[in-house]
Amino acid sequence: MEQRNVSENSKFVIMIAEDRKDQALFISRILSEQDYRVICVDDGLRALQLIVRGVIPHILVTDLKMPTVTGFRVARSMP
């Protein structure tokens, strides 16, 4: 596994779309400790809204079964 310098990690934006707050917090904490920029949203609709507005993460971590909009739909919307 390639080791990244902390300042290099801070260039990467990771979006977490998860409706369970405990899981989102757990994932976010781990990634933030590695100096990644993390955006958390609590449903797929909010993730879609951000993507449409131009907030495009480098990596999307999503729950596949969420109310309103599934993680599959969010993933398919990524450019």
Question: Can you tell me about this structure?
Answer:
The chain has a three-stranded parallel beta sheet, sandwiched between helices. It has 79 residues and is α/β, with parallel strands linked by helices. Helix 3 (44-52) runs parallel beside helix 4 (71-77). The N and C termini lie far apart (27 Å). It has helices at residues 6-9, 21-33, 44-52, 71-77, and strands at residues 13-17, 37-41, 59-62.
Please work out how many helical segments DSSP would assign.
4
Helix content: 40-55%
The biggest beta sheet reads: 3 strands, parallel
Written as H for each helix and E for each strand, in order along the chain, the element string is HEHEHEH
**CA-to-CA gap between the ends?**
27 Å
